[in-house]
Amino acid sequence: MVRLGFIIGLIAIIGVVLSGFSASRVYEQEAAIQRIALGRAIDVHASQVQDRLTERELLGRVASGLFRKPSVIKADMLQPLRSSIYTFKTDFVLATWVARLKPEEVPAAEAELTKAGFPDPTVRDYDGKPLDLSSPVPLDVVMDVEPRNAETMALTGRMLDHDPVLGRTFAQALAEGQPHVSDPVPLTGSGPVGVVLAAPVMNTDSSDIVGFVTFSYRLATLMLTNDDLSLFSVVLKDPSREGYELVADESGEITSRVAPEGANPMIVRTVTFGNRDWSLAYYPKIDPYDRAQKMALIIGLAGLALTLIVCGLFGYVSYSNIRLRREIQMRIGFERRLTAVIDELNHRVKNILAVIQSIVTRTLRHGSDLDVARELLIGRIHAMSNVVSLLSDSQWQGVMLKGLFEGRAIPHADRIEVDGPDIAVSARAAQSLSLLFFELASHSDEGLAVVGKHPRVVANWTVTGDGKDATFHFRWEEFNTSAATRRPDSEFGIILLDRVAPEALGGTSKRYFTDISYVYELTAPLDTVVDVYERDRTGQITAPVRPPRKSPKQPR
Predict the structure, then answer these.
(1) Taking the domain 368-537, which CATH number applies?
(2) For residues 529 and 425, is the Cβ–Cβ distance under 8 A?
């Protein structure tokens, strides 16, 4: 009996020890899983917020850069930008043109506002009171708004220097010469709470700031959107009041509250917008340790109840531990791979944005005609958009070279005879070649040539050599054209043709006129052109993309 009791006691002790050990392990692992899931969800949200903020700051920089020698005494300065700013789809509430006027320019500004049909053309203070124009200090006056409606048009003519929030924002942007964002403020009077991004506009003839392009955004959709099914709630640390937080409810209404005592946020993330840092605090909606505690309790009770089969229980717990450990390792591995993919995507997006910024800057410089520059800018960005779409479809593993000659991205594609081997070019080469093809096609003669016909355009390429000595040769030739009939290449086009494209491919280029044609040739090592993962699919195709049209034989 004593021996039996001893054995039973021993089994009970073993069962308690095993149950306690199992419960502890399950608790730690479940808590780790919950913390990882919650932390990852917060990181994704903060990354998405930063991406939205970056897009909106980019819109402000692009919009301010599109101005060419602006006349500040005009009430329709946003007219050339309307199609461009809506293309970004950044859901701004209000865009305004705020001009820096000298006191003696106020009568002319009021005349412009009257001519534009705004309801109150009087230049006045931000609260509607008359201005004292005896001071020589320039005035920041709203001269144009977008969209135009009864509520927004009433804002024109207001001088914002004395506004307690926007006045500081303009002063900061003026001092830094960079876009600056305001503290949270009600938009359009009593509208929703948001922030105003002020981008200074420089005079192209000097470094003086002649005004500001502003964009107003709702704070709820910009940073504080909270999902009912989310694992956390997010608040914004109020930059204007220490110890206060801004929080959005389900309908998007923003309220201010005192930071709750004893309820510290799980994670605080900092995002950058308008040359300022914003702190987002994340509060978990569900205690990450609650599920772990429940699981540990169940395992402990089960272990105590099944002490007679402790070996089986121990085996089950061991198997469960291995399974949970593998799941954690798999999740951690997935997190690392996903982080690497996101980093790579951010890198590619930054590169594309840098290319677009270079296109915009070089297209709209040196006093170029605004209409021509706008058409070229739209076409170049369309060419970039087309190649990005093709690369996205191929998961950035390269595209077929002939696919870059699609009609939706290349002007006069129906008049281009394309011939060459079926080559899968790399992502980097595809971006350079897409802009190159657009530049060549957009500058081909659209009128009648000297022989009374449109130019006949032939684009062909060949590959010579084998292995590391393989060389890519590209030739573009426009027949029935000459230096007198062909539109000259733009400054951006010359840089692209002679320097950017050859350097990107590690090759050389040349362009010249023959007696009957204009020729552009590009030579580069094949290794810098083709996609290494698709090189096995690169084959020789002798037939052109489309059958050549039947027409009288052209002189060559």
Answers:
(1) 3.30.565.10
(2) yes
User: Is 370's pLDDT higher than 50?
Assistant: yes
Cα–Cα distance for residue pair 138/161, rounded to 1 Å: 9
Half-sphere exposure of 352 (CA within 13 A, CB side): 23
CA distance 119 to 335: 56
How much of the chain is helix, strand and coil, in % rounded to 5? 45, 20, 30
pLDDT tens digits along 264-305:
788 899 999 988 898 999 888 777 677 777 777 787 777 777
- ω into residue 164 within 30 of 0, thus cis? no
List the helix and strand counts (H, then E) for the chain. Answer: 12, 20
pTM of the model: 0.50
Instruction: Yes or no: say if 492 and 373 are a contact pair by the CB < 8 Å rule.
Output: no
Residue with tokens 């203070």: 125
Domain residue ranges of the chain, discontinuous segments joined by +: 12-59+290-343, 368-537
What is the distance between the alpha carbons of residues 237 and 280, in angstroms, rounded to a whole number? 6
CB neighbours of residue 326 within 10 Å: 10
Q: What is the pLDDT of residues 138-161, one digit of tens each?
A: 999 999 998 888 888 889 999 999
Calculate helix-pair angle for 370-393, 310-363, nearest 10 degrees. 160
Q: How many of the other CB atoms lie within 10 Å of CB of 16? A: 15
Contacts of 171 (CB under 8 A, 6+ apart): none
On whether the CB atoms of residues 246 and 256 are closer than 8 A, the answer is: yes
